[in-house]
Amino acid sequence: MSVEHDPSMRRPTAGIDWASTEHALAIVGLDGVEVQRMIVEHTATGLRKLLRCLQQTGVLEVGIERPDGPVVEALLEAGLTVFVIAPNQIKHLRRRYGAAGNKDDRFDAYVLADTVRTDHHRLRPLTPDSPATLTLRMTVRARKDLIAARVAMANQLRAHLEHVLPGVIGLFRDIDSAITLSFLTRFPTQDKVDWLSPRRLQNWLHAVSYPNPARAGLLHAHLLAATRGTTGPEATARAHVTAALVAGLTTLREQINALEEQIEVQLLQHPDAEVFTSLPRAGIVRAARLLAEIGDARGRFPTPEALTCLAGAAPSTRQSGKVKVVGFRWAVDKQLRAAVIDFAGDSHHANPWAADLYQRARARGHDHPHATRILARAWLHVIWRCWQDCVPYDPIRHRALQAVLATTA
Fold it and tell me: Residue limits of the Transposase IS116/IS110/IS902 C-terminal domain (predicted)?
């Protein structure tokens, strides 16, 4: 007989409201009455105190709002069963105990503990990913954050150059490219840009190994046609801002490249690497991102539907009486959704089956984001099967793809 059907086997349950500096712990008995409450600091001593309290009261199951971090690692290492209950669920669960629904850390810890007690059969225990996957996830997300910082700083540089040196905007393809940053390092003011002639610009392009120095004439014409920037002493003063932004972007580019090298090493050493690198247009970074966000704990997604729902690729259906509304799914893992949508949005350029699904969705009147989600849902069924079987994606064995190829042959 399982624990949830045999009251004699049930133990007190606990809830932990996680915070950055301290954690609220609540323990409830079999009757739902709170038997222990405490606040522990987010320190090694505090975590030991928390675990000691759980052991002394006989707790085996703990509810918490987040699936990772030192607290969760300590709970799992202690052999406790951890249930992750999302913050938006807690928000609604508060109303089971009162109409106000106000946020309070100690009360939320009680709600978590009591939810584990009453809804044990509805919850799925947390299955941790392997250390290799956790490390890859950390590296992939760090790269993503640095790219966001690079985009923000590039926008700041563009806004700065609109006043100081407009001619550089659009001179090369990207404002934060290596060639643009090199140009701004050598020619940070309008006065120095005025010194350039087509011949001098061509010589400089040769010196920095620009792949097409013959474009010097067109580039010089672009500089002449642009609105003139700041000149004189004011330009010299503002050049310090330009130099600071260029230095920041240069550093960000270097660190992003360093992380990408680490991502490649970590991915190729991962047992599931072949599953994700075999997908069309996956590459290294995209495959690593998919693997990092899906993870390698197969028990977390027992069905492809469980994966598609968490990734936000399945619509949310609401029905009341004769009214049925199908809408966008908001309660999802946003990191997972971003990784899946990024992959699906590019896959239809390389896979005929994906292209057929995407085009048929557009023909039904769906916009690009909606069509991409439809394609993502279909891909997740394929990925889930490959992932569960630990086998690479094989276009020859993909019957839906072969059917499309046979039709177009």
Answer: 274-359
Structure letter (DSSP) for residue 14: E
Domain hosting 204: range is 134-267
Spatial neighbors of 208 by CB under 8 A, at least 6 apart, are 179, 182
Does 262 lie in the same domain as 202?
yes
- The angle subtended at Cα 131 by Cα 128 and Cα 135, nearest 5°, is 115
Q: Whole-angstrom Cα distance, residue 357 to residue 353?
A: 6
User: Do 238 and 288 belong together in one domain?
Assistant: no
- Structure token digits, residue 86: 């999302």
The pair of structure tokens assigned to 6 is 């045999």
User: Which residue among 247, 267, 287 closes a domain?
Assistant: 267
CA neighbor of 312 nearest in space, from 368, 386, 374: 374
- Residue 318 has a pLDDT of 61
Count up the domains in the chain and report the number: 3
β-bridge partners, 13: 28, 61
Spell out, as residue ranges, where the chain has pLDDT lower than 50: 1-5, 8
Q: Is residue 305 part of a domain?
A: no
Say if residue 60 is in the same domain as residue 140. Answer: no
pLDDT at residue 2 in the model = 44
For residues 140 and 149, give the distance between their C-alpha atoms in angstroms, rounded to a whole number.
14
Q: Where are the extended beta strands (E) located within 297-409?
A: 316-320, 323-327
Q: Check whether residue 349 and residue 365 sit in a common domain.
A: yes
Place of tokens 């508060």: 94
Q: Give the residue ranges of DSSP H helices in 269-347.
A: 273-277, 285-294, 304-310, 334-347
What pLDDT was estimated at residue 1?
A: 42
Strand partners, 26: 15, 37
26 in Cβ contact with 117 (< 8 Å) = no
pLDDT at 316: 58
What six digits make up the tokens of 133? 């996957």
Integer Cα distance of 61 and 323 in angstroms: 39
Residue 118 and residue 139 in one domain: no
Q: What is the pLDDT of residue 5?
A: 47
Nearest to 124 by CA among 303, 387, 293, 292: 303
Q: Which helix (H) or strand (E) element contains residue 40? A: strand 34-41
For residue 152, report the phi and psi dihedrals to the nearest 5 degrees: -65, -45
Q: Which amino acid is at 302?
A: P
